Each structure stands twice: as structure tokens, then as C-alpha cells.
Amino acid sequence: MKIAIFDDDIIFSQNLSKEFNEYYKKLISPIEIEIITKNFSLDSFDDLDIAFIDIDLNGKNGIALAKYMTDISPKILIIFISSRDELVFNALSVPTFQFIRKSKFKEDCAKVFNQLYKHIQIYNKKIILEINGRKTVLNLNEIQYLLSFGRDLLIKTITNDYIIVSTMKEIMHKIEEKSYNDLIQISRNQIVNLNYVNNIKSSNVILNDGSKYSIGRKYKSTFIKKYEEFLLR
Q1: Residue 19: CATH number of its domain
Q2: Of 88, 106, 123, which marks where a domain is finished?
Q3: InterPro entries, per this entry (predicted)?
Q4: Reported pTM
């Protein structure tokens, strides 16, 4: 699990990193935590799982940074931190997992870490696939879509493209075995992840990267129903 802490307060960041490691050391492995105290406008963080972001970053806008990050990679869980409690309402303008008040650090950490672990148990599900003759572990939440070409199946993730030999029925069976409900079939040869859907227009689904795919008539009503349920979660 990859975590980044964006805060110009190095002492607080170190304390947060220590608290996180202490809580999760027997629950999650491996854990990588990077503390970023300057140069907050990073070019690449699409492989992050969790971002702790101070709303007031030494004159920078932490909320704008969070919005930019989630636009690029919706899977990133944003946890805002701040010494100014009144800013919690401003933070709600972007997809936010939780908020840690520096004035209630220990209390909020215990609550947020517990909620976070429950979330990870539900959504951080993985499958093992044979890719190029090797067993490869994929996080289902990182798959943007799957596209079949006969017996070949393209798996598009946020970092890589993989091609395996599989039918849609076979891959859907593997996904359903993990009780992961966000990968939904939209046509005979395509599955999309609801976490990466930006909009639905007519009979097309538009993903966050701007790509557009047709929704088959047979799949449209089920897909729209699942998407509406997803939005209400």
C-alpha cells in the first residue's frame, strides 16, 4: 500500500506516519509512506492508494491538489488534515474519505484508521492471473476496463495494459468470486469499472480519461441501475 502525506509541518507528518505504521503494521503489508513537505504539484501519483493532504499547504491550496489527484486517479482515498476545523466544509467540494483535525489528532486518527481498514477490507480486492507465463496479482479497483478480442482479453489498469487468454464469462466468474461489484459489463465484449466513469450520454459511457464506449442494448438498463446505485453509495 502506497501512502503520501502532503504537509509542510514535518513534525506532524512524522507523527502521522508513525501512528499509521503502528496501527497497520500487523494488518497490512507492505506499507510505503512518503512525506512531502514542498513541491506539492507532483507530476505522477497515480499509483497512490491514500493521500493525507493539509488543506493549507504553506499558501498552496490542498483542496485543489486533491481535486487534481482524484481527476487523474479516482481510486486514491483523500484524507484531509488541518489545524483549522472550520475548513472541513470546504473539503467536501472534492471526493473525500475523511478529515483529521490536528487539534483532535489521536481521537481522529483512531476513528479514521478504523474506518479506513473496514473500507480496505471491502474494496481492496485482488485476483491472480497468468500473464506472459507468470502469476500476476492485480488490484480490481485499479482496473479501468476490460475488452475482449476473441480469446484474447485486454485488461486496462491505471498503470499498465495486460493481454491474457480468457473469455468474458471466465473473467467475470473470477471477479464475482471476489464479491467485487464495480466492474460491470456494458456490451458483449467490454466491462468497465464504475470508479472510472465520468458520465453516461445516450447509449455511451464516458470514462475519466475522455474515452467513450457504446453500451449494448441488452446491457443498458442493468448498467444504468448499477451506476445509479454506485453514485448513491
Answers
A1: 3.40.50.2300
A2: 123
A3: CheY-like_superfamily, LytR-like, LytTR_DNA-bd_dom
A4: 0.69
218 with 204, same domain: the answer is: yes
Question: Could you give the C-alpha distances from 95 to 5, 70, 98, 229, in angstroms and in order?
Answer: 17, 8, 9, 17
Written as tens digits, the pLDDT of the chain (233 aa) is 889 999 989 999 999 999 999 999 888 878 899 998 877 655 556 678 899 999 888 767 888 888 888 887 888 899 999 888 777 777 777 888 999 999 999 999 999 999 998 888 777 788 999 888 889 989 898 899 999 998 899 999 988 999 999 989 999 999 988 888 899 999 999 999 999 999 999 899 999 889 999 999 999 999 999 999 988 87
Domain that holds residue 35: 2-123
DSSP annotation of 209: T
> What is the 3 state secondary structure string of 136-198?
EEEEHHHEEEEEEECCEEEEEECCCEEEEECCHHHHHHHHHHCCCCCEEEEECCEEEEHHHEE
- Three-state secondary structure along 55-107? CEECCEEHHHHHHHHHHHCCCCEEEEEECCHHHHHHHCCCCCCEEEEHHHHHH
Show which of 123, 144, 169 is a domain's final residue. Answer: 123
Q: How many domains does the chain have?
A: 2
